Amino acid sequence: KSANPQWREQFDFHYFSDRKDMLDIEVWRKDNKKHEELLGTCKVDITALPTKQTNRLELPLEKHLGSLLMLVAVAPCTGVSISDLCVCPLGDPAERKQISQRYCIKNSFQDIKDIGFLQVKVLKAADLLAADFSGKSDPFCVLELGNDSLQTHTVYKNLNPEWNKVFTFPIKDIHDVLEVTVFDEDGDKPPDFLGKVAIPLLSV
């Protein structure tokens, strides 16, 4: 019940510079569980922002009253990657040894924020739900750790897709939960949910 809400939340998005991405923002209001109303939208052209600094943006909402105040920083990614199975970071013995030394007990207090990183190999899915009229699905997989999110490519018309990708995430909180969700790509419509699994880091 506020016309001037303050959220004060931070989100990390992995932006790859070879893509011309726009950051799309929507502001909604919720009366109850069933009724939602769009209060406005705005866009930020990521490529136009200066890098390695925090940009303070006051964005008017398109076709609606009000504005949105946000801080956006574009900085080089550290510890985040997507690769094929044949070149995964922990597959190289020399790199594995270097990582072991970096996180050994004697180096524990070198960088308090550098807790570690998580490497996830997404191999395949089996016997997925058919979401399309053809009896098939167009599945892709989304991995979320805290506010970090990475995803695989889509395998079209397949209920047993193979992705064979390796994802690495920096760990910011040892109590975080890795959430792996499989969706069916549905063109311009929102993707259909095909299933989900949650893995607490402390269980690994």
Automatic annotation (TrEMBL):
<dbReference type="Pfam" id="PF00168">
    <property type="entry name" value="C2"/>
</dbReference>
<keyword id="KW-0479">Metal-binding</keyword>
<keyword id="KW-0677">Repeat</keyword>
<protein>
    <submittedName>
        <fullName>MCTP2 protein</fullName>
    </submittedName>
</protein>
<keyword id="KW-0106">Calcium</keyword>
<comment type="similarity">
    <text>Belongs to the MCTP family.</text>
</comment>
<dbReference type="GO" id="GO:0030672">
    <property type="term" value="C:synaptic vesicle membrane"/>
</dbReference>
<keyword id="KW-0812">Transmembrane</keyword>
<dbReference type="InterPro" id="IPR035892">
    <property type="entry name" value="C2_domain_sf"/>
</dbReference>
<dbReference type="GO" id="GO:0005509">
    <property type="term" value="F:calcium ion binding"/>
</dbReference>
<feature type="domain" description="C2">
    <location>
        <begin position="1"/>
        <end position="59"/>
    </location>
</feature>
<dbReference type="GO" id="GO:0046928">
    <property type="term" value="P:regulation of neurotransmitter secretion"/>
</dbReference>
<feature type="domain" description="C2">
    <location>
        <begin position="93"/>
        <end position="204"/>
    </location>
</feature>
<dbReference type="InterPro" id="IPR000008">
    <property type="entry name" value="C2_dom"/>
</dbReference>
<keyword id="KW-1133">Transmembrane helix</keyword>
<keyword id="KW-0472">Membrane</keyword>
